[in-house]
Structure formats: C-alpha cells, structure tokens
Design goal:
Layout: H1 3-12, E1 21-24, E2 43-46, E3 50-51, E4 81-82, H2 85-93, E5 99-102, E6 106-108, E7 113-114, H3 129-135, E8 139-142, E9 154-155, E10 170-172, E11 176-181, E12 184-190, H4 196-202, E13 215-216
Parallel strand pairs: 1-2, 1-5, 5-8, 6-9, 8-10, 12-13
Antiparallel strand pairs: 2-3, 3-4, 6-7, 10-11, 11-12
C-alpha cells in the first residue's frame, strides 16, 4: 500500500470517537482499526453478526471460524457478542450505528453513493452496504480520489448503480477531505505536498473553497 493511502486511512481514523458503535466497510475502511490505540473504547460491529470485535489477526494466530463480513480473521475482546443476521440488521436498520466508513466507486455532489457494482463485472451483490448507507447516523467514504483509469470518483451524478441516495456526509481520499453540504461539496483539507489547484484538477465537480480555513493532513 502506498504512503498516500496509509496517510488517508490514518486521517480517516480520527472520525472514530470514544464510545461510538462503528461499522467498517470492506477494503480500505477495515484498516482503520490499525490506527486506533490499543484498548480504545469503541464498539466495532460486523453485519455477519459480531459486536465489539477485536483487531484482525494473521492466519497463524486466527480462529478459523471467526471472521468479519469481509472474510478477515478477527479477534474477540471482553464483551464481544455474537448474534444472527436478523439481529445484526435490526441494529443497523434501527439506527443504532453512530458511524459507518465505506469504500466508493463514485460519490455525487449531493452525497449519492455508488459502491457495489460495475455493470458487466461479477459482484456477489450489494450486501449490507445499502442498509449501512441509509441507516447509519453518519456515513463517511474512504477511497482513492481517482479510479484506475485516472478518472475522478467525485462526480456531478453517479453513472453506476446507486447504493443509497444523498447519504454521504464526508469523503476522505488520498488527496483531500471533502464535506457534502447543502451548498455543495466543500474542501476542508488537502494532502501534504499538493496544492488547491491539484485538487480542483482531479475533482469532477466544483468545490467550495476557503483557503484561509484549509488544513493539511
């Protein structure tokens, strides 16, 4: 993993606050736990039926029967609970999650999210992403700024099948931190070594920018 992506994940980990119940999506979001202090008081939820899960474990240390929704081997902590999918999704649908951090294929300027399929390519289905994006109290995206073709993932309108409508509150990329507001997408922070012009050139929508308030991560 590149240093830019590591920096992105480390910055996004600051979204997780003490006392939260949090669900982390597959991919970059699952790495968030690597940047939380040992014993940090947070309840990690996995939609396959775990609450209060511990960090991921390497194969040689893992219980082969204990995985998260992405298939990674995970550990337990004092208070870890296990339950069926009906109970797990009742927690999600009941609005009990303070935060979900998800990956993205596209994010639209109004906060629409597309993150589950590219037409013509195999996908196992939307999974829990649709529920998480609609029902978590705060929805944050963690993704590279550009796709593999060098196109911006931040777009005026999603052209890929939607996961949920107008659900995203904030986007963390390897280049910037962007909030979705009623007025439009607002640039909050830029990655070290980049300029505002770099972000503008790489972003598919106009950005609201107050250079006096910009931070660097």
């Amino acid at each position: 993993m590149s240093g830019d992506n590591e920096r992105m994940i480390k910055r996004a980990a600051r979204e997780v606050l003490a006392g939260m119940t949090v669900n982390l999506g597959i991919g970059y979001p699952t790495r968030i736990v690597d940047y939380l202090e040992a014993g940090f008081p947070v309840c990690m939820h996995s939609e396959n039926g775990i609450s209060g899960q511990g960090p991921a474990l390497p194969y040689e240390q893992a219980d082969r029967n204990l995985i998260d929704a992405g298939g990674a081997y995970v550990s337990t902590l004092p208070g870890t609970a296990f339950f069926d999918s009906a109970t797990s999704f009742a927690l999600v649908r009941g609005g009990r999650l303070d935060l979900t951090i998800l990956g993205a294929l596209q994010v639209a300027s109004n906060g629409d999210l597309a993150n589950w399929t590219i037409p013509g390519k195999f996908t196992p289905g939307v999974g829990g992403g649709m529920e998480l994006a609609q029902k978590a109290r705060r929805v944050v995206v963690l993704s590279t700024h550009l796709d593999k073709r060098g196109q911006s993932k931040i777009v005026p309108h999603c052209t890929l099948p939607l996961t949920a409508h107008a659900c995203v509150d904030r986007v963390y990329t390897d280049m910037a931190v962007i909030d979705i507001t009623a007025e439009g997408m607002c640039l909050r922070e830029i990655a070290g070594g980049l300029t505002v012009d770099d972000i503008i050139a790489a972003t598919g929508v106009p950005l609201l920018i107050n250079e006096n308030d910009l931070d660097t991560f």
